[in-house]
Amino acid sequence: MLCGIILPEAQTQEPSVFAEPDPAVTPEVYTEPQPAGEPQDTTTYLEGDILVRTPLEAEEEDGDITVVTADDYHPYGLENKREFNPSPERAVWMSALFPGLGQIYNRRYWKLPIVVGGFMGLGYATNWNNGQLQEYSQAYRDLMDNDPSTNSYMNFFPPNTKEESLNKTWLTNVMKSRRDFYRRNRDLCIICCVGLYLLCMVDAYVDASLAKFDISPDLSIEWSPAIGVDPSEKKLNVGIQWAFNF
Predict the structure, then answer these.
(1) pLDDT tens digits, 43-78
(2) 173 with 144: CB under 8 angstroms?
(3) Cα–Cα distance between 92 and 45 in angstroms, integer?
(4) Structure pTM?
(5) What is the rounded CA–CA span in Å between residue 159 and residue 91?
(6) 3-state secondary structure (DSSP) of residue 228
(7) Strand partners, 39
(8) 123: helix, coil or strand?
(9) At what angle do helices 112-144 and 168-209 cross, to 10 degrees?
(10) Which residue of 42, 122, 132, 153 pairs with 182 in a disulfide if CB–CB is 3.0 to 4.6 A?
């Protein structure tokens, strides 16, 4: 007969997935390594979660820190860009140097064709009226010198027109009025050229001065009834007073 002692098998207990964590166990803390020579990242990862520290807490722990805000951030390639702020004095001098340069300096390129077209039109009109003035002035001088060999005034009539058939008094009045007409038009074109030159300077100055003017649509008007006294007639006047806010 064989006798023996049977030892009970070691029972292994599997951990339950629903078991609560033991508060006595300290969780493992993992810090992401940083390359040599670079500032160390103070962000701490705890079991897959990120521990976010407020700037006040970080300052208490690390001392002096630099907090980067949204105003310090610049998109790529725009960190060295400066806001355009034209100078009114410089715009005036550039426009005085050559009409249109002030508009280019203010970046109002759409005004340049207007300036160029205005000067070209006035220049052509001045040249054409001056040519007509020279012709009628010469014809008037030939008519008044009583020299038969100088009759440039006949160039204004058809070739088959005879000089004897023309009324000299009427012809003299016509030549004189035409000469004065084209002289007035030429002088007016010159004055318009000077006025356009000055207008370009004023436009460049005003445009540069109002470059930072607030043109937002947030405008409002306040109005209310008003009663006034006319001191001469001693009567009450009823009206409306208003004020624009912008």
Answers:
(1) 444 444 444 455 555 455 555 545 445 445 455 555
(2) no
(3) 62
(4) 0.55
(5) 57
(6) strand
(7) none
(8) helix
(9) 160
(10) 132
